[in-house]
Structure formats: C-alpha cells, structure tokens
Amino acid sequence: MSKRIYRGYTLDPFQREALAAVDAGQSVIVAAPTGTGKTLVADYLVEKALETGERIIYTAPIKALSNQKYKDFKIRFGEESVGILTGDIVLNSGAPLLIMTTEIFRNQVITEEPSLNNVSHIIFDEIHWLNDEERGTVWEESIILAPAHVKILGLSATIANARELTAWISSIRQEEIALIEEHKRAVPLEYYYYTKDTGLVSYEKLWRYYRDKSRAVQAFDESPFATTTHLDLIRAIQRHYLPVLYFVFSRKLCLEKARELAAGTNYLKPAQRRLVEQAFLDQFGPQDYWSASTKQLRRVCLKGIAFHHAGLLPAQKVLVEELFQRRLIFVLYCTETFSVGINYPVKSVCFDSLHKFDGHGFRPLANHEFFQMSGRAGRRGIDETGYSFALVDFNYMEKNPPQKFQLNKLEPLSSQFRLTYNTVLNLTATLNLDQIETYFKKSFSAFNAHQSSLNLKAELAVTEREATEGRQVCEHLGSYRCPLKYEPKLKELERLRRTYQSLAPRKQNRIYGREMARKIRSLERLLAHQPNS
C-alpha cells in the first residue's frame, strides 16, 4: 500500500490499512498499543461521516475521556456539530456527532431509541473494557443489540485474543469485520522497580539484591531493609522523568499522597502559579463560594501537584485535566481510570502497589492492566522513551512478592455477561421470548463455550483415531502416575525445596516457612509412586 498523508501525518501501515477498510464501508476492530495513533482512525471516520451528512456516535468508558473528546471535536468541527451525553452533562443531544458513555448507548439500544435509525456508525473507544469485571457486560450488550445498519469501529489496546473477539462480533452481526493489529509501540517503554536500597533496577537485579542481602544478614532478627515510600520514588525520578502519573488504587490515598508531597515540594515558578490561580477563579468564581474540597485541591495544584479520581466533582476533574494538559501539573496521583485513552503529556508512570482491591480481596495486577497503565507513558512526537516505575518494599517481599509482567502473556478477553434486573425488565418490555433467547445465545460467553466444545471434539477425534491405529496411550493418563502430570509436579517440588533450603532457620520456623514445608510434604506424598515410563 502506498504512503498516505492525513492531517499532515504520514500514516503507519496499520493506519493505512484501517482507513482503507473504513473507506470500503466495513466494520473495523483496531488493536494496537497505547500511543501508536489508533485514535486517528476514529478521527478520520468522524470527519468522513460529517462530510457526507451522516450521524455518528462516539462512546467512551469514562467521563474524563468523553469530556476530552467533546472538547477536541468541538474545536475541530464547531460547537453546533458536536453534542455530549453523560451522567453529568447533556449538551446539543441532536448533533450529528454525539459523544456518550457506553452505558447510555446501551440503554438507548435496549429501549430502541428512535434517533438510532439515523446513525451510520458507532465508535467503541477502549472496546477491551468488555473484560471489566463490573462494567464489561455493558459493552457486550451494546454490541449484541447495536442496530444491524450501524457499522462498528472498535478501538482497543493490544489483546491476546483479538481474532476471537472479531469472530464473535462477525458471527452475531452476520457481516465481515476487518481486524487491524499492530504490536509495535511508536515510543518504546522501559520498565523499572524501585526501592530505597536499590534505586531504579530491573526485575532480575531487584531479586538478586534481595536474596544477597537476606543471606548476608540472616543472623539478625530485625529487617535489614529501609522502608520505601512514594516520596522516595518521586524524589528519585523528579529530575528527569516528569510529568508523571502516579497510580494509587484508593481515592483516599490519592489525596493523602498529594498533600504529603506538596508539604515539602513545589514544581511551579511564580508565573505558573498565577496561571493556576486564574484557572481556579475562572472555573469556580470568587473564593468565598468555594467548597472545602476545592480549596484543598487548589493548595496542592499551586505546587504543580494534583489528584484525580471518580469521587471529585465534575468541575474539579475537568480543571485538573486541563491543568495537566497545559503542563502545569507535574505529579498527578490518580486511580486507574486515568489510564483510559486520554492523550496527555506523560513521560512516566508510577505504581504505588502491584496489587489492587477488586471488591472481594487484594489480588496482583493482571498483565493487561499493568501494560494498559504503563502505556500512558511516552507520547508520540513528545518523548523518545516512556518509563514505568513500580514501588517495592523489601519488607513485604515474602508476603507479596512483585510479579514479573510479560507482554507476550496477556490474558485473553473473557465474557463478563451478567443477567441484571435492569436488563430483564428492559428486555421483557421490548422483546418477545424468542428474541430474548436469541439475545442470550449471542453472548461472548456462549460463543466461547461453543468454540471450546468444537475444539474438545476435535481433540477427542484425534485421540480416538490414534487409539484405533494402535498408538500407545498411558494407562494412568490423568493421574500422577502418568509422566504428563508427574513431571511438572516434580519440578514444582524441587523448586520449593530449593527455596525452603535457602531460607534462614529462623524464617523456616515462621508462618511462611511452615506453610512451605507443609506443601513440600504434601507433594512428596502425592509423588510417592514413580510414574510408568
């Protein structure tokens, strides 16, 4: 495909391929790393639709992204051409380009909103949110019920099973879906772990230092390691790696950490402070009418520091976003929602923890979560390299060891389809029983189950054919007397033994050591019988 220029940019091959599919009138899924320029495909589609007098909907998973796209499109196409519909704002709802949260679009398709008859395209930004445990079902319902005449453009970060997702959408919509994938980032990322003892190091060096230091001081009961805090990490990177998004998985801690840093740090010059002061006055009016939370936010913003989470008032969030965009905020403590699709000048990201509370308990970050958030670092045309820093405290290494994230081991998207009271009421009000049954059969979960069934049947057919042809099959297949199950467990046992032996005697007697010894004994009993060869 020859070179193609759009808005002064020479397009990358995947962008040219995506635009060609749009021009051909196809529905398209674009899966590419954060920062590679997949949003350009959406911009092109919006421009094309408006030029031909068509109506188009742009959905986003969070209000911050909806607000940013509204501002960007309003500047480009004019205020009369763009509307926004979120839980906070309703403006120009009859506009040819309407931006909304995915929940609102889902409600419109369930209730068969008449205005959808005039829509030619629906853009699902961050379509991989289909995997979100709490809200993923919204994307699934939206895709299932989207009118057949509406073409789809889905934008996603890199996902492991993009072909499976595309095949599902193609099967329920009875149309060919073009899948465009790009795996190379435009701005490379470097990943580091940080402790006060080591500074910024690789994963391998982190563990090497911990093991060497642990062995050297195993005779002492007290911890040999210094406690590491967010202030230590910020001080280590503030000279060369700002602006930074500092991810904290707690609204309360976002505020607390911002205040702690602001107590002893100021990143703004007097002229910049005046710009921040004026921005607050423009947004909230005279200080006599400000809320306590707005005054609190102003105090840290005047130091070039801020916090951002879903609990802020809409006007407060908008102001923080604008100040960050204008490079008047250098350290932003935020929850993971700020990792979604927002194009801000971020040079690096930090993780306060590599574990998060998921509503049930604390669990390690998944690969796709880590890389989605890390992907905010390093913006095309601004940075040569982006940086990801994870804070680690050696004092908790045994209890919560940091995981090594691997881009080639991204978790596949899975169905989060849920039957809610709201869905039942809406479906029974608008569909008959046969239609409702079809609706459930179209879920991503049903598609995955069907594909798994086909794969298992194929494997069974191969096994039966091999058995018929007289090939030897282990009589203990499925038990630990079969080498296929015995060998992996034996390697696990050997690994546990080595780790246990490396512990100091005092640590062998602690809860962690006793639990490891118990597991070793259990595996030894399990593998007591040698496998048949």
Summed up, the helix count is 19
Strand content: 15-25%
Proportion of helical residues: 40-55%
Lateral arrangement of strands in the main beta sheet: 6-5-7-4-8-9-3-10
The best one-word shape is globular
| Ends distance | 55 Å
Query: What structural category arises from helix and sheet content?
Result: alpha/beta
The largest sheet is: 8 strands, mixed
Q: Averaging pLDDT over every residue, what do you get?
A: 87
What integer value in Å does the Rg equal?
27 Å
Low-pLDDT segments: none
> What's the total count of β strands?
19
Pfam families: DEAD
InterPro entries: DEAD/DEAH_box_helicase_dom, Helicase_ATP-bd, Helicase_C-like, P-loop_NTPase, RNA-DNA_Helicase
Organism: Acididesulfobacillus acetoxydans
GO molecular function, one term: helicase activity
List the helices and strands and how they pair.
Layout: E1 5-6, E2 9-10, H1 13-23, E3 27-31, H2 39-51, E4 55-60, H3 63-77, E5 82-85, E6 90-91, E7 97-101, H4 102-110, E8 119-125, H5 136-145, E9 151-156, H6 162-173, E10 177-181, E11 189-195, E12 199-201, H7 203-216, H8 230-237, E13 244-247, H9 251-262, H10 270-284, H11 292-301, E14 305-308, H12 314-325, E15 331-334, E16 348-351, E17 355-357, E18 362-364, H13 367-374, E19 386-391, H14 421-430, H15 433-441, H16 444-468, H17 483-502, H18 505-508, H19 511-526
Parallel strand pairs: 3-9, 3-10, 4-7, 4-8, 5-7, 8-9, 11-19, 13-15, 13-16, 14-15, 16-19
Antiparallel strand pairs: 1-2, 5-6, 11-12, 17-18
Helix pairs in contact: 1-2, 4-5, 17-19
